[in-house]
Amino acid sequence: MKITRILHLEDSLNDSELIHSLIENGCVGFEYLLTDNEKDYLKILETENIDIILSDYSLPDYNGNDALKVAREKYSHIPFIFVSGAMGEDRAIDAMLNGATDYVLKNKLERLVPAIKRAMHEYELENKKKQAEVNLRSKNELIEAQNIRYIKINKELEESKEKAEESDRIKSIFLTNLSQELRTPLNVILNFSQLITGIDDKQQIIDYAKVINKGGNQLLTIIEDLFIVASILSENITKKIKEIQLSDLLDKARFIINDELIKCNKEGLNFSVFDKSPEEDVHVLADYDMFGGVIRRLMLNAIKFTNNGRIEVGYHINEKEIVFYVRDTGIGIPIEKQDIIFDFFRQAEESPTREFGGIGSGLAICKSFIDKMNGAIWVESQIEKGSTFYLSLPLVNQHSPPLSNISNEKHTNIKNGTVLIVDDVESNRLYLDYILKDNGLKVYTVANGQAALDLIKRINAIDKVLIVINILSTDIYELTRLIKKVRPEIPIIIQITSSLPLQDERAIDSACDFLIKKPIEIQELVRTINDCLKKTKAS
Question: Is the pLDDT assigned to residue 263 strictly greater than 60?
Fold first, then answer.
């Protein structure tokens, strides 16, 4: 049986004995604690588990209203009953308004025990109500959590379904394209090999043999690409990166390009290939064969999609890398397709009635080769104006020891992070791309905000976003807002010019996580990236 612990605040010994006697006769199972001063009253409330408070209104050294105020501020759950002989109707009303549970006049003490029982009953009901509310809230939270989990599972299932459907779609397109790409040269070989057996004209035989040879080379190219793709996907491809003199690399590229120009047979094309002499003592870190494979595929790509106009192949050298480019005046690539063309078996045009052939492996192989050589590849393109494919490769530091002894030490210990650079200035992207890769980071670069958003939605591995700007732009605010809406955990760094007005600088600072100024200091950027990594890990 639960013991009801009663605290009585009363200065009259006779009154307290009378009240104690009444409670004893009317209540079962109680403990009675008596005090007549503030100090003991507060101490008992702090140290004892009190169930109900009885209080006189007027005390020599304390006031019943003050006792009520303390009880309501700190122990609002404890019922409080005034038991007083000097309490008029106005005081009683005020006491009830201030939170008293009830009041009993000393000349009507027969009401005391029923008042105590009623107060305790209401107290128990209130406790049960609160407990029921807690239980209900807990169940609602559990249901809500289950709903969220259900929604999440459904979303994951839907995403998995979409990925599976997309994978099936790509696989179907690939198999259709592969079948067509294999049948076309195979039919040529079979048909012309039959024709050649029935003719005696030597020149005609030579012409037919050339057609058969061309078809055979087409088949060989497709089969070789499939073998390379299989090796890449199974991670069995090997690389032989070494120091190569730039002049040797350019000779390799010229040989490949001239070979393809002879084969292409397009009279409406003009070509420009490395129109400047190579700098002396420039060495590139590359795999000789992989580099040749990339140049060949980029050249074939430019020739395929450019019927007339110009194809230009060139390069420029930055502080720590060389950037080659293949520029054409062909049909161009839609901006929404510029990311997928580097995926295996994806093409800008994937409809069954597409004008241009191919199985969608060439650019994906280029990207894989460039990644193996610690370089980068990207495209800039406009519809009906043409495309420029860039590929960068690291230069050998002439002041460093030979490659076999080169240390892997970087500027700092940042690694295993993924950064997205958003900048409409190509040279800025190239510079930042190299710095961050040189410090062990994986880097994506885009030229505009929409491309950044598309990439962030597609690639979950991106840890932080580096946005470089030269002037204040409302697009920056909108871009940061949209990025945070999609991926709120990604830290955003904005780089500004030192000449930016303080008012604008503060406005930009409020829109991002970190702010750095131009001219860029490598150590400052590295330190900021480190801070981003720490913030990402802590969140």
Answer: yes
Q: Any idea what the CATH number is for the domain that residue 448 is in?
A: 3.40.50.2300
Asked if residue 124 is part of any domain, the answer here is no
Mean pLDDT to the nearest integer, 217-226: 82
- Predicted confidence at residue 406, as pLDDT, reads 32
State how many domains the chain has.
Answer: 4
Distances in Å between the Cα of 364 and the Cα atoms of 87, 368, 436, 465, 526 are: 92, 6, 23, 25, 31
- The arrangement of strands across the sheet holding 321-328 comes to 269-273, 309-317, 321-328, 386-394, 376-382
377 near 370, Cβ under 8 Å? yes
Q: Given this model, what pLDDT does residue 518 score?
A: 62
CA atoms lying within 13 Å on the CB side of residue 411: 17
Distance set, CA 455 to CA 162, 295, 322, 467 (Å):
18, 26, 26, 14
| Residue 188 identity | V
Residues 438 and 524 in one domain: yes
Q: Are residues 383 and 250 part of one domain?
A: yes
**Mean per-residue pLDDT, 69-82:** 90
CB atoms within 10 A of CB 348: 20
The tokens describing 493, both together, are 């760094």
Of 114-123, 147-156, 226-235, the one with minimum mean pLDDT is 226-235
Pair (458, 371) in one structural domain: no
Q: At 343, phi and psi to the nearest 5? A: -90, 155
CA gap 370, 291 in Å, rounded: 8
- Are 363 and 391 within 8 A, CB to CB? no
Euclidean distance between CA atoms 510 and 508, whole angstroms: 5
Residue 16, classed as helix, strand or coil, is helix
**What residues contact residue 83 under an 8 Å CB cut-off, 6+ apart?**
8, 10, 19, 54, 55, 56, 103, 104, 106, 109, 112
Structure confidence at residue 536 as a pLDDT band (50, 70, 90): low
pTM score of the predicted model: 0.44
Domain boundary among 234, 267, 298: 234
* Host H or E run for residue 365: helix 362-372
Q: Residue 209 sits in which domain range?
A: 186-234
Q: 258 and 374 share a domain? A: yes
- At 524, the amino acid letter reads E
Give the angle 508-510-512 at the CA atoms, nearest 5°. Answer: 75
